[in-house]
Every structure is written in structure tokens, then in C-alpha cells.
Design a protein that fits this description.
The protein is mainly beta and 320 residues long. It has two helices and 14 strands, in the order βαβββββββββββββα. 7% of the residues lie in helices and 13% in strands. The protein has a nine-stranded parallel beta sheet, with no helix packed on it. Strands 11-13-14 form a three-stranded parallel beta sheet, with no helix packed on it. The chain has a two-stranded parallel ribbon with strand order 1-3.
Length: 320
């Protein structure tokens, strides 16, 4: 049964269930509390189930929601900064523009939810499922994410600046123009992610897996990529200036037109990488990396790289 707090046709509205009445009363009292009224009190909602409630623009800052089942809820514009959600189901909910700054989410389902512009800055997320979730322009600045699943999510222009991500999954997600400045990312999976023009500047991306990912024009300036794998990825025109790629694996990846000024390549596995037209590579850098006869060097010739061969210099497009 669909439920709305804003319906005008009272005669046609079915009677509310006890859960609906309790939630409405709790939220009303919560808003009174934030309005400075003594009659108000913090909303603590536990174990209730509602069918697609319309709660848009309500006040739920610092509220506590436990085992709530409100799949399909409309929460557009709700103020929820500092709120705590535990074992809640918000699948297919609408959280456009919701403010969850400093919130805590544990074992929460947001699968197929619409969360464009959602603000999760400084929030703590553990075991949160966002599969198929639309999070265009979402903000997760300085957030802490542990074992979260964004598979098949739409995260274009999302901000993860200075966030900490541990054991998270982004398989088949869209992350074009996403920013991850100074993020700390460990043991995460980015299989078949679409992340062209994403910006990972000064991030620590360690022991992560990128498999068949599209990362054209991505920026990795001063990023630490030690121990991460880029298998059959498209990194055309990527910017690795000042990055630490030591020990990284680039098996079958396309690095055409990339920039590598002062990048560290000690032990980087380039044995099946395509480096055609890569810029700013030096003989010293290539000598420290692993290359083979399957490597395509910057001048278009096959490897392995040999000192004094000049293969580190991209061949001019006007060369014969």
C-alpha cells in the first residue's frame, strides 16, 4: 500500500497502519526537537516496514533508523546529516539531493536507488550495497567506505576526494569525470569500469584490480599505484607524471599517448603493454621496467627495450 504524508484526498486515503502512524509521529516530534521545542525528541525508528512512503523535505538530522524497510521511499531533499542507518532497505528509493553528511550507514541496501547529488561527505559506510544505483554528482569527500558494492552504478562526476576505500567493488560501474584526489584506495575492484577523464591525482591506489577498464584521458599525477593490476585496460592519453607505478602490472593494457615525466617504473610489468606515442619516458625508466617482445615501445617498435636504441622516443607522425 503506497503511503504519503502529503495526500489531499482524505476520503480516498486508506487508514494508516500502526507503523505509518508511529513513523509520522516520531518524525513530527523530531522536527519539533530541531525547532527548539521542549515537546520534541529524537526519532528512533526500529523494525518498521512501509510501502514507498513520501517523506520529501523532512527533517531527520541525527535520527536513528534500524531494520527499516522503506523500499521505494521518496526522500528528496531530506536533511539527514549525522543520521545512523543500520540494516535498512532503501532499494529503489529516491534520495536526490539528500544530505547525509557525517552519517553512519551499516548493512544498508540502496540497490537501484536514485541518489543524484547525494552528500555523504565525512560519512562512514560499511557493507552498503549500491548496485545499479544512480549517484551522478554524489559527494563522498573524506568518507570512509568498507566493503561497499557500487557494481553497475552510475557515478559520473562523483567526488571521492580524500576518502578511504577498503575492499570495495566498482565492477561495470560508470565513473566518467569522477574525482578521487588524495583518496586512499586499497584492495578494491574496478572490472570493466567506464572511467574516462577520471582524476586520481595524488591518490594511493594499492593492491587494486582494474580489468578491461576504460580509463582514457584519466589523470594519475603523483599517484601511488604500487601492487595494483591494470589488465587489458584502455589508458590511452593517461597522465602518469610523477606517479609511482613500481611493481604494477599492465598486462595487455593500452598506454598510447600517455605522459610519464618522472614516473617511477621499477619492476613495472609492461611485457604486453602498448606504449606507442608515449611521452617523456627515459632510457632509465624503461630499463627499470619489465618489457618483452610483446611490448610495443613509444617509437612503435617491438620490445624488449634496449638501452641506446632510441625506442623511448615517440616516432613523429610525419616520419616515413
Amino acid at each position: 500500500m503506497a503511503w504519503t504524508w502529503f495526500g489531499q484526498e482524505k476520503e480516498k486515503t486508506p487508514p494508516q497502519t500502526s507503523d505509518e502512524r508511529d513513523v509520522r509521529m516520531a518524525v513530527d516530534l523530531h522536527e519539533q526537537r530541531h525547532g527548539g521545542l521542549r515537546s520534541g525528541r529524537r526519532a528512533v525508528l526500529d523494525g518498521m516496514e512501509l510501502d514507498a512512503p513520501d517523506m520529501r523535505d523532512r527533517e531527520l538530522r541525527q535520527a536513528l533508523l534500524i531494520r527499516m524497510r522503506i523500499a521505494g521511499a521518496v526522500l528528496t531533499g531530506v536533511q539527514m546529516s549525522g543520521a545512523s542507518l543500520e540494516e535498512c532497505d532503501l532499494s529503489q528509493a529516491t534520495l536526490t539531493g539528500v544530505d547525509l553528511t557525517g552519517g553512519s550507514l551499516q548493512q544498508v541496501f540502496l540497490d537501484m536507488a536514485s541518489c543524484s547529488g547525494l552528500n555523504l561527505s565525512d560519512a562512514r559506510l560499511q557493507a552498503v550495497s549500491c548496485q545499479g544505483c544512480s549517484m551522478v554528482g554524489a559527494r563522498m569527500i573524506e568518507a570512509q567506505l568498507h566493503r561497499c558494492d557500487f557494481s553497475r552504478g552510475v557515478l559520473n562526476r562523483a567526488s571521492f576526494n580524500q576518502a578511504r576505500l577498503l575492499d570495495c567493488t566498482f565492477n561495470h560501474a560508470e565513473m566518467e569525470n569522477a574525482t578521487l584526489y588524495h583518496a586512499n584506495i586499497q584492495f578494491c575492484r574496478f572490472h570493466r569500469v567506464q572511467a574516462s577523464a577520471s582524476n586520481w591525482t595524488s591518490a594511493k591506489v594499492q593492491s587494486c584490480e582494474f580489468v578491461k577498464a576504460v580509463l582514457r584521458g584519466s589523470r594519475w599525477n603523483n599517484t601511488v599505484l604500487q601492487g595494483s593490476e591494470f589488465l587489458s585496460c584502455d589508458l590511452s592519453e593517461a597522465d602518469f607524471r610523477g606517479a609511482n607505478l613500481s611493481g604494477g602490472k599492465f598486462d595487455g593494457s593500452i598506454l598510447k599517448g600517455g605522459r610519464f615525466h618522472e614516473a617511477k617504473l621499477l619492476g613495472a610489468d609492461l611485457r604486453r603493454a602498448d606504449l606507442r606515442m608515449a611521452h617523456e619516458l627515459t632510457p632509465y625508466q624503461l630499463a627499470q621496467a619489465l618489457t618483452s617482445d610483446a611490448t610495443i615501445l613509444p617509437n612503435g617498435m617491438r620490445g624488449p627495450y634496449l638501452k641506446h636504441s632510441g625506442a623511448e622516443r615517440p616516432r613523429s607522425r610525419f616520419s616515413s
